[in-house]
Protein backbone atom coordinates (compact mmCIF):
# COMPACT_ATOMS: atom_id res chain seq x y z
CA UNK A 1 0.00 0.00 0.00
CA UNK A 2 1.53 3.34 -0.90
CA UNK A 3 0.02 6.40 0.74
CA UNK A 4 -3.69 5.88 0.55
CA UNK A 5 -3.66 3.34 -2.27
CA UNK A 6 -3.89 -0.45 -2.18
CA UNK A 7 -2.91 -2.65 -5.15
CA UNK A 8 -4.25 -6.19 -5.54
CA UNK A 9 -3.62 -8.47 -8.52
CA UNK A 10 -6.53 -10.84 -8.96
CA UNK A 11 -7.99 -13.34 -9.10
CA UNK A 12 -6.95 -14.60 -5.65
CA UNK A 13 -8.58 -17.14 -3.36
CA UNK A 14 -8.76 -16.34 0.34
CA UNK A 15 -7.60 -19.25 2.46
CA UNK A 16 -6.70 -19.40 6.13
CA UNK A 17 -7.83 -18.44 9.59
CA UNK A 18 -8.18 -15.01 11.15
CA UNK A 19 -8.91 -13.68 14.60
CA UNK A 20 -11.22 -10.73 13.89
CA UNK A 21 -10.49 -7.25 15.32
CA UNK A 22 -12.62 -5.56 17.97
CA UNK A 23 -15.89 -3.94 16.92
CA UNK A 24 -15.83 -0.25 15.96
CA UNK A 25 -19.54 0.21 16.60
CA UNK A 26 -19.37 -1.48 20.00
CA UNK A 27 -16.20 0.37 21.05
CA UNK A 28 -17.37 3.94 20.26
CA UNK A 29 -20.44 4.08 22.56
CA UNK A 30 -18.56 2.11 25.26
CA UNK A 31 -15.77 4.70 25.20
CA UNK A 32 -18.40 7.45 25.46
CA UNK A 33 -19.89 5.62 28.47
CA UNK A 34 -16.60 5.83 30.42
CA UNK A 35 -17.40 9.53 30.95
CA UNK A 36 -20.27 8.50 33.24
CA UNK A 37 -18.03 6.86 35.82
CA UNK A 38 -15.08 8.17 37.79
CA UNK A 39 -12.05 5.88 37.78
CA UNK A 40 -9.67 3.86 35.67
CA UNK A 41 -11.27 1.71 32.94
CA UNK A 42 -9.56 -1.24 31.21
CA UNK A 43 -10.95 -1.99 27.74
CA UNK A 44 -9.57 -5.14 26.06
CA UNK A 45 -9.59 -6.03 22.31
CA UNK A 46 -10.18 -2.38 21.40
CA UNK A 47 -9.66 -1.75 17.66
CA UNK A 48 -6.89 0.76 16.89
CA UNK A 49 -8.82 2.47 14.07
CA UNK A 50 -9.08 6.16 13.21
CA UNK A 51 -12.67 6.49 14.47
CA UNK A 52 -11.51 5.23 17.90
CA UNK A 53 -8.48 7.54 17.74
CA UNK A 54 -10.83 10.49 17.12
CA UNK A 55 -13.08 9.48 20.01
CA UNK A 56 -10.06 9.21 22.32
CA UNK A 57 -8.94 12.72 21.29
CA UNK A 58 -12.38 14.00 22.28
CA UNK A 59 -12.15 12.20 25.64
CA UNK A 60 -8.71 13.75 26.23
CA UNK A 61 -10.17 17.19 25.34
CA UNK A 62 -12.72 16.56 28.10
CA UNK A 63 -9.94 15.85 30.60
CA UNK A 64 -9.58 12.06 30.43
CA UNK A 65 -6.17 10.36 30.35
CA UNK A 66 -5.62 7.61 27.78
CA UNK A 67 -2.98 4.85 27.56
CA UNK A 68 -2.68 1.96 25.08
CA UNK A 69 -0.94 -1.34 25.80
CA UNK A 70 -1.32 -3.29 22.56
CA UNK A 71 -5.08 -3.64 22.14
CA UNK A 72 -5.72 -2.98 25.81
CA UNK A 73 -6.85 0.60 26.40
CA UNK A 74 -6.71 2.33 29.78
CA UNK A 75 -9.05 5.31 30.23
CA UNK A 76 -8.70 7.43 33.38
CA UNK A 77 -11.77 9.65 33.83
CA UNK A 78 -11.00 10.97 37.32
CA UNK A 79 -10.00 14.45 36.09
CA UNK A 80 -12.91 14.85 33.68
CA UNK A 81 -13.84 18.50 33.71
CA UNK A 82 -14.88 19.86 30.36
CA UNK A 83 -18.35 19.69 28.81
CA UNK A 84 -17.30 21.54 25.65
CA UNK A 85 -16.26 19.17 22.89
CA UNK A 86 -14.35 21.07 20.32
CA UNK A 87 -13.00 19.21 17.38
CA UNK A 88 -11.85 19.75 13.86
CA UNK A 89 -12.34 17.35 11.00
CA UNK A 90 -15.48 15.57 9.93
CA UNK A 91 -14.12 12.23 11.07
CA UNK A 92 -14.50 13.23 14.70
CA UNK A 93 -17.89 14.76 14.02
CA UNK A 94 -19.82 11.52 14.08
CA UNK A 95 -18.14 10.52 17.32
CA UNK A 96 -19.23 13.77 18.99
CA UNK A 97 -22.88 12.74 18.59
CA UNK A 98 -22.25 9.64 20.69
CA UNK A 99 -20.91 11.86 23.48
CA UNK A 100 -24.14 13.88 23.83
CA UNK A 101 -25.88 11.56 26.28
CA UNK A 102 -22.86 10.73 28.41
CA UNK A 103 -21.55 14.29 28.83
CA UNK A 104 -25.10 15.45 29.67
CA UNK A 105 -25.36 12.60 32.17
CA UNK A 106 -22.09 13.52 33.88
CA UNK A 107 -21.86 17.33 33.50
CA UNK A 108 -25.56 18.30 32.99
CA UNK A 109 -24.50 20.39 30.05
CA UNK A 110 -22.84 19.71 26.69
CA UNK A 111 -21.63 21.62 23.68
CA UNK A 112 -20.63 19.91 20.45
CA UNK A 113 -19.88 21.22 16.97
CA UNK A 114 -23.07 20.73 14.98
CA UNK A 115 -22.50 17.30 13.38
CA UNK A 116 -22.66 17.45 9.63
CA UNK A 117 -23.88 14.61 7.45
CA UNK A 118 -21.49 12.35 5.61
CA UNK A 119 -21.34 10.74 2.19
CA UNK A 120 -23.90 8.03 2.93
CA UNK A 121 -26.61 10.40 4.06
CA UNK A 122 -27.71 13.49 5.96
CA UNK A 123 -27.41 11.65 9.28
CA UNK A 124 -29.90 13.87 11.19
CA UNK A 125 -30.00 13.62 15.00
CA UNK A 126 -33.63 14.60 15.61
CA UNK A 127 -34.40 11.27 17.31
CA UNK A 128 -31.40 11.69 19.62
CA UNK A 129 -32.45 15.21 20.64
CA UNK A 130 -36.15 14.32 21.08
CA UNK A 131 -35.21 11.37 23.29
CA UNK A 132 -32.87 13.47 25.44
CA UNK A 133 -35.49 16.26 25.68
CA UNK A 134 -37.97 13.72 27.07
CA UNK A 135 -35.41 13.15 29.88
CA UNK A 136 -35.41 16.90 30.61
CA UNK A 137 -32.59 18.26 28.41
CA UNK A 138 -33.02 21.61 26.63
CA UNK A 139 -31.02 22.27 23.45
CA UNK A 140 -30.03 25.53 21.75
CA UNK A 141 -28.97 25.36 18.09
CA UNK A 142 -26.27 28.00 17.71
CA UNK A 143 -24.52 28.89 14.45
CA UNK A 144 -21.98 26.07 14.42
CA UNK A 145 -22.56 24.38 17.73
CA UNK A 146 -25.28 22.55 19.56
CA UNK A 147 -25.59 23.40 23.26
CA UNK A 148 -27.61 21.28 25.70
CA UNK A 149 -28.28 21.69 29.40
CA UNK A 150 -30.37 20.12 32.10
CA UNK A 151 -30.85 20.75 35.84
CA UNK A 152 -31.34 17.07 36.58
CA UNK A 153 -32.10 14.35 34.08
CA UNK A 154 -35.33 12.59 35.08
CA UNK A 155 -36.75 9.21 34.08
CA UNK A 156 -39.43 9.20 31.35
CA UNK A 157 -41.38 7.08 28.88
CA UNK A 158 -39.31 7.62 25.68
CA UNK A 159 -40.65 6.59 22.26
CA UNK A 160 -38.34 6.31 19.24
CA UNK A 161 -40.15 6.64 15.87
CA UNK A 162 -37.37 4.56 14.27
CA UNK A 163 -35.03 2.07 16.02
CA UNK A 164 -32.02 4.34 15.60
CA UNK A 165 -28.83 2.74 16.96
CA UNK A 166 -27.27 6.06 17.95
CA UNK A 167 -30.42 7.50 19.48
CA UNK A 168 -30.94 4.31 21.53
CA UNK A 169 -27.34 4.59 22.78
CA UNK A 170 -27.68 8.28 23.67
CA UNK A 171 -30.91 7.75 25.62
CA UNK A 172 -29.34 4.84 27.56
CA UNK A 173 -26.25 6.94 28.33
CA UNK A 174 -28.39 9.81 29.66
CA UNK A 175 -30.85 7.59 31.56
CA UNK A 176 -28.44 5.55 33.71
CA UNK A 177 -27.74 8.46 36.11
CA UNK A 178 -31.17 10.11 35.75
CA UNK A 179 -33.52 10.56 38.70
CA UNK A 180 -36.11 7.79 38.35
CA UNK A 181 -36.96 5.11 35.81
CA UNK A 182 -36.81 5.43 32.01
CA UNK A 183 -38.63 3.05 29.68
CA UNK A 184 -37.33 3.28 26.10
CA UNK A 185 -39.87 2.03 23.54
CA UNK A 186 -38.88 1.22 19.95
CA UNK A 187 -35.22 0.69 20.89
CA UNK A 188 -32.67 -0.63 18.38
CA UNK A 189 -31.94 -4.38 18.68
CA UNK A 190 -28.37 -4.31 17.30
CA UNK A 191 -25.73 -6.38 19.22
CA UNK A 192 -23.90 -3.10 19.97
CA UNK A 193 -26.85 -2.03 22.15
CA UNK A 194 -26.54 -5.22 24.25
CA UNK A 195 -22.75 -4.69 24.50
CA UNK A 196 -23.23 -1.09 25.70
CA UNK A 197 -25.87 -2.16 28.24
CA UNK A 198 -23.60 -4.98 29.49
CA UNK A 199 -20.75 -2.50 29.91
CA UNK A 200 -23.00 -0.03 31.75
CA UNK A 201 -24.21 -2.84 34.06
CA UNK A 202 -20.55 -3.60 34.89
CA UNK A 203 -20.28 0.09 35.83
CA UNK A 204 -23.23 -0.35 38.22
CA UNK A 205 -26.16 0.67 36.01
CA UNK A 206 -29.58 -0.96 36.31
CA UNK A 207 -30.71 -1.83 32.75
CA UNK A 208 -33.11 -4.56 31.60
CA UNK A 209 -34.52 -5.48 28.20
CA UNK A 210 -31.57 -4.55 25.99
CA UNK A 211 -31.81 -6.56 22.77
CA UNK A 212 -35.59 -6.17 22.84
CA UNK A 213 -37.68 -3.17 21.67
CA UNK A 214 -38.40 -2.10 25.29
CA UNK A 215 -35.47 -1.22 27.56
CA UNK A 216 -36.01 -0.24 31.22
CA UNK A 217 -33.35 1.82 33.01
CA UNK A 218 -33.55 2.56 36.73
CA UNK A 219 -31.38 5.62 37.43
CA UNK A 220 -28.61 5.15 40.05
CA UNK A 221 -26.76 7.92 41.97
CA UNK A 222 -23.32 7.11 40.58
CA UNK A 223 -21.35 4.70 38.39
CA UNK A 224 -17.84 3.31 38.82
CA UNK A 225 -15.05 2.19 36.50
CA UNK A 226 -15.14 -1.26 34.88
CA UNK A 227 -13.09 -3.70 32.80
CA UNK A 228 -14.53 -5.01 29.53
CA UNK A 229 -13.69 -7.05 26.44
CA UNK A 230 -14.91 -5.53 23.16
CA UNK A 231 -16.48 -8.26 20.96
CA UNK A 232 -15.17 -8.87 17.45
CA UNK A 233 -16.53 -6.69 14.67
CA UNK A 234 -19.47 -8.39 12.94
CA UNK A 235 -19.20 -6.11 9.89
CA UNK A 236 -15.46 -6.70 9.44
CA UNK A 237 -16.16 -10.44 9.74
CA UNK A 238 -19.00 -10.21 7.21
CA UNK A 239 -16.83 -8.22 4.79
CA UNK A 240 -14.16 -10.96 4.76
CA UNK A 241 -16.80 -13.68 4.39
CA UNK A 242 -18.06 -11.97 1.23
CA UNK A 243 -14.42 -11.79 0.08
CA UNK A 244 -14.13 -15.55 0.53
CA UNK A 245 -17.32 -16.05 -1.48
CA UNK A 246 -16.19 -13.73 -4.30
CA UNK A 247 -12.77 -15.30 -4.72
CA UNK A 248 -13.98 -18.90 -4.27
CA UNK A 249 -11.94 -19.22 -1.09
CA UNK A 250 -12.07 -21.03 2.23
CA UNK A 251 -11.78 -19.13 5.53
CA UNK A 252 -12.36 -19.71 9.21
CA UNK A 253 -12.96 -16.57 11.31
CA UNK A 254 -12.31 -16.90 15.03
CA UNK A 255 -13.57 -14.98 18.05
CA UNK A 256 -16.73 -13.95 16.17
CA UNK A 257 -19.94 -14.13 18.24
CA UNK A 258 -22.05 -15.91 15.61
CA UNK A 259 -25.27 -14.54 17.12
CA UNK A 260 -24.06 -11.07 16.07
CA UNK A 261 -24.10 -12.18 12.40
CA UNK A 262 -27.91 -12.46 12.30
CA UNK A 263 -29.06 -14.05 9.06
CA UNK A 264 -25.72 -13.64 7.27
CA UNK A 265 -24.77 -17.37 7.45
CA UNK A 266 -28.14 -18.21 5.84
CA UNK A 267 -27.57 -15.65 3.05
CA UNK A 268 -24.06 -16.99 2.35
CA UNK A 269 -25.56 -20.49 1.93
CA UNK A 270 -28.18 -18.98 -0.40
CA UNK A 271 -25.26 -17.62 -2.49
CA UNK A 272 -23.96 -21.22 -2.74
CA UNK A 273 -21.31 -21.31 0.00
CA UNK A 274 -20.66 -24.15 2.44
CA UNK A 275 -21.09 -22.60 5.91
CA UNK A 276 -20.37 -24.07 9.35
CA UNK A 277 -20.67 -21.94 12.46
CA UNK A 278 -20.71 -22.44 16.23
CA UNK A 279 -20.62 -20.01 19.22
CA UNK A 280 -17.55 -17.95 18.32
CA UNK A 281 -16.25 -19.19 14.96
CA UNK A 282 -17.56 -19.39 11.40
CA UNK A 283 -16.15 -21.40 8.46
CA UNK A 284 -17.06 -20.56 4.84
CA UNK A 285 -15.98 -22.35 1.63
CA UNK A 286 -17.06 -21.38 -1.88
CA UNK A 287 -16.49 -23.71 -4.82
CA UNK A 288 -18.90 -22.34 -7.39
CA UNK A 289 -20.15 -19.16 -8.99
CA UNK A 290 -22.37 -17.08 -6.70
CA UNK A 291 -26.09 -17.67 -7.04
CA UNK A 292 -28.13 -14.48 -7.64
CA UNK A 293 -30.51 -13.12 -4.98
CA UNK A 294 -33.93 -12.17 -6.47
CA UNK A 295 -34.52 -9.52 -3.79
CA UNK A 296 -32.70 -8.36 -0.64
CA UNK A 297 -33.55 -5.35 1.52
CA UNK A 298 -31.42 -3.79 4.27
CA UNK A 299 -33.13 -3.53 7.65
CA UNK A 300 -32.44 -2.93 11.34
CA UNK A 301 -31.04 -5.97 13.21
CA UNK A 302 -31.69 -8.89 12.82
CA UNK A 303 -32.37 -7.96 9.18
CA UNK A 304 -29.59 -7.74 6.57
CA UNK A 305 -27.24 -4.96 7.77
CA UNK A 306 -26.84 -1.85 5.63
CA UNK A 307 -23.11 -1.94 6.46
CA UNK A 308 -22.73 -5.13 4.38
CA UNK A 309 -24.89 -3.99 1.48
CA UNK A 310 -21.91 -2.84 -0.64
CA UNK A 311 -20.12 -6.17 -0.12
CA UNK A 312 -23.28 -8.01 -1.21
CA UNK A 313 -23.61 -5.83 -4.35
CA UNK A 314 -19.98 -6.59 -5.21
CA UNK A 315 -20.49 -10.34 -4.73
CA UNK A 316 -23.72 -10.37 -6.75
CA UNK A 317 -22.01 -8.62 -9.69
CA UNK A 318 -20.28 -11.98 -10.32
CA UNK A 319 -23.43 -14.07 -9.71
CA UNK A 320 -25.05 -16.31 -12.34
CA UNK A 321 -28.07 -14.08 -12.89
CA UNK A 322 -30.04 -10.95 -11.98
CA UNK A 323 -30.27 -9.62 -8.40
CA UNK A 324 -32.23 -6.75 -6.88
CA UNK A 325 -31.18 -4.85 -3.73
CA UNK A 326 -33.16 -2.25 -1.80
CA UNK A 327 -31.33 0.06 0.67
CA UNK A 328 -33.81 1.21 3.30
CA UNK A 329 -31.57 2.62 6.02
CA UNK A 330 -29.44 5.33 4.38
CA UNK A 331 -30.34 7.53 1.45
CA UNK A 332 -27.02 7.47 -0.45
CA UNK A 333 -25.36 4.13 0.02
CA UNK A 334 -24.82 2.84 -3.55
CA UNK A 335 -21.62 4.77 -4.27
CA UNK A 336 -19.80 1.52 -4.96
CA UNK A 337 -21.93 1.00 -8.10
CA UNK A 338 -20.03 3.41 -10.37
CA UNK A 339 -16.71 1.98 -9.16
CA UNK A 340 -17.83 -1.60 -9.84
CA UNK A 341 -18.87 -0.54 -13.36
CA UNK A 342 -15.25 0.56 -13.94
CA UNK A 343 -14.35 -3.09 -13.15
CA UNK A 344 -16.80 -4.35 -15.76
CA UNK A 345 -19.79 -5.07 -13.54
CA UNK A 346 -23.20 -4.54 -15.09
CA UNK A 347 -25.07 -2.89 -12.24
CA UNK A 348 -27.25 0.20 -12.07
CA UNK A 349 -28.71 2.05 -9.09
CA UNK A 350 -31.54 4.51 -8.86
CA UNK A 351 -32.65 6.11 -5.53
CA UNK A 352 -32.80 3.28 -3.02
CA UNK A 353 -32.58 0.39 -5.53
CA UNK A 354 -29.74 -1.41 -7.29
CA UNK A 355 -30.22 -3.88 -10.15
CA UNK A 356 -27.29 -6.22 -10.69
CA UNK A 357 -27.15 -8.12 -13.96
CA UNK A 358 -24.53 -10.62 -12.75
CA UNK A 359 -22.28 -12.83 -14.89
CA UNK A 360 -19.63 -10.11 -14.95
CA UNK A 361 -16.02 -11.05 -15.49
CA UNK A 362 -14.57 -8.31 -13.29
CA UNK A 363 -11.38 -6.66 -14.60
CA UNK A 364 -8.74 -4.91 -12.52
CA UNK A 365 -9.15 -1.11 -12.62
CA UNK A 366 -8.35 2.12 -10.77
CA UNK A 367 -11.27 2.56 -8.35
CA UNK A 368 -11.94 4.99 -5.53
CA UNK A 369 -13.21 4.37 -2.02
CA UNK A 370 -15.69 7.17 -1.25
CA UNK A 371 -16.74 5.90 2.19
CA UNK A 372 -15.83 3.20 4.67
CA UNK A 373 -17.90 0.13 3.76
CA UNK A 374 -17.96 0.74 0.00
CA UNK A 375 -14.18 0.99 0.08
CA UNK A 376 -13.82 -2.33 1.89
CA UNK A 377 -16.21 -3.97 -0.58
CA UNK A 378 -14.07 -2.78 -3.53
CA UNK A 379 -11.08 -4.55 -1.97
CA UNK A 380 -13.15 -7.74 -1.85
CA UNK A 381 -14.20 -7.23 -5.49
CA UNK A 382 -10.51 -6.97 -6.48
CA UNK A 383 -10.08 -10.61 -5.35
CA UNK A 384 -12.47 -11.72 -8.07
CA UNK A 385 -11.10 -9.41 -10.79
CA UNK A 386 -8.69 -10.44 -13.55
CA UNK A 387 -5.61 -8.18 -13.35
CA UNK A 388 -4.45 -5.46 -11.01
CA UNK A 389 -6.91 -3.23 -9.12
CA UNK A 390 -5.77 -0.02 -7.45
CA UNK A 391 -8.07 1.18 -4.67
CA UNK A 392 -7.48 4.80 -3.65
CA UNK A 393 -9.12 6.53 -0.67
CA UNK A 394 -7.87 3.92 1.79
CA UNK A 395 -8.13 6.53 4.55
CA UNK A 396 -11.87 5.82 4.52
CA UNK A 397 -11.29 2.08 4.97
CA UNK A 398 -8.87 2.70 7.86
CA UNK A 399 -11.73 4.33 9.79
CA UNK A 400 -13.14 0.88 10.49
CA UNK A 401 -10.58 -1.77 9.44
CA UNK A 402 -7.61 -1.79 11.79
CA UNK A 403 -5.08 -3.43 9.50
CA UNK A 404 -6.70 -4.80 6.37
CA UNK A 405 -3.27 -5.49 4.83
CA UNK A 406 -2.27 -7.82 7.63
CA UNK A 407 -5.74 -9.40 7.80
CA UNK A 408 -5.71 -10.18 4.07
CA UNK A 409 -2.13 -11.52 4.23
CA UNK A 410 -3.22 -13.87 7.04
CA UNK A 411 -6.01 -14.98 4.70
CA UNK A 412 -3.44 -15.80 2.01
CA UNK A 413 -3.89 -12.69 -0.14
CA UNK A 414 -0.87 -11.04 -1.81
CA UNK A 415 -1.11 -7.25 -1.78
C1 LIG B 1 -24.98 3.22 13.38
O1 LIG B 1 -25.12 4.52 12.83
C2 LIG B 1 -23.64 2.71 12.87
N1 LIG B 1 -22.57 3.58 13.35
C3 LIG B 1 -23.65 2.67 11.34
O2 LIG B 1 -22.42 2.11 10.90
C4 LIG B 1 -24.78 1.75 10.89
O3 LIG B 1 -24.85 1.77 9.48
C5 LIG B 1 -26.11 2.26 11.47
O4 LIG B 1 -26.00 2.33 12.92
C6 LIG B 1 -27.28 1.35 11.13
O5 LIG B 1 -27.03 0.07 11.61
C7 LIG B 1 -22.13 3.45 14.62
O6 LIG B 1 -22.63 2.63 15.38
C8 LIG B 1 -21.02 4.36 15.04
P1 LIG B 1 -29.08 5.01 12.91
P2 LIG B 1 -26.32 5.49 13.35
O7 LIG B 1 -29.27 6.12 13.88
O8 LIG B 1 -26.51 5.30 14.81
C9 LIG B 1 -31.84 7.95 10.43
C10 LIG B 1 -20.39 2.05 9.75
O9 LIG B 1 -20.11 1.92 8.53
N2 LIG B 1 -31.86 8.77 11.65
O10 LIG B 1 -29.62 3.64 13.23
O11 LIG B 1 -26.05 6.84 12.83
C11 LIG B 1 -30.46 7.97 9.78
O12 LIG B 1 -30.32 9.12 8.95
C12 LIG B 1 -21.52 2.97 10.15
O13 LIG B 1 -19.83 1.45 10.67
C13 LIG B 1 -32.72 9.87 11.71
O14 LIG B 1 -33.44 10.15 10.76
O15 LIG B 1 -27.55 4.83 12.57
C14 LIG B 1 -30.45 6.70 8.98
O16 LIG B 1 -31.12 6.92 7.77
C15 LIG B 1 -22.19 3.63 8.97
N3 LIG B 1 -32.73 10.65 12.82
C16 LIG B 1 -31.26 5.73 9.86
O17 LIG B 1 -32.02 6.56 10.76
C17 LIG B 1 -31.92 10.36 13.91
O18 LIG B 1 -31.99 11.10 14.93
C18 LIG B 1 -30.41 4.77 10.66
O19 LIG B 1 -29.60 5.53 11.48
C19 LIG B 1 -31.05 9.25 13.83
C20 LIG B 1 -31.04 8.47 12.69
Q: Could you characterize the architecture of this molecule?
A:
Helices cover 32% and strands 24% of the residues. Helix 7 packs parallel to helix 9 (309-316). Strand 23, helix 11 (372-384) and strand 24 form a beta-alpha-beta unit. It has helices at residues 24-33, 50-61, 90-107, 126-134, 165-175, 191-202, 234-246, 264-270, 309-316, 336-342, 372-384, 394-397, 404-410; strands at residues 5-10, 15-19, 37-38, 40-44, 65-69, 72-76, 109-113, 138-141, 145-149, 157-159, 181-185, 206-208, 214-218, 223-224, 227-229, 250-254, 274-278, 281-285, 296-297, 323-326, 347-350, 353-356, 366-368, 387-392. It has 415 residues and is of the alpha/beta class. The strands form seven sheets. The chain has a four-stranded mixed β-sheet, with helices on one face. It has a four-stranded mixed β-sheet with strand order 5-6-4-15, covered by helices on one side. The chain starts with a strand and ends in a 5-residue tail after the last helix. Ligand EPZ binds next to helix 1, helix 4, helix 5 and helix 11.
Amino acid sequence: MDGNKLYIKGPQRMHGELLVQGSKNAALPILAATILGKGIFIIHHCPRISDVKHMLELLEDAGCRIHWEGHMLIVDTRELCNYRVSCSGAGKMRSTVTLLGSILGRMHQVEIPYPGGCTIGKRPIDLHLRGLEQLGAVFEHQEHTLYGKVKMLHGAQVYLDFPSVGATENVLLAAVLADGTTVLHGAALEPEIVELASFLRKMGADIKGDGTPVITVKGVPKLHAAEYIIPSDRIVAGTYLFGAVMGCGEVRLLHVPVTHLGKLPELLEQLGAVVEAEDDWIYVRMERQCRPVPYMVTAPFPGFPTDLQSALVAALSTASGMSFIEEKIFEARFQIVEELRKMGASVVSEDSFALIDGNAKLQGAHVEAKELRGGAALIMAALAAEGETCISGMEYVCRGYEDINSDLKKLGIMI
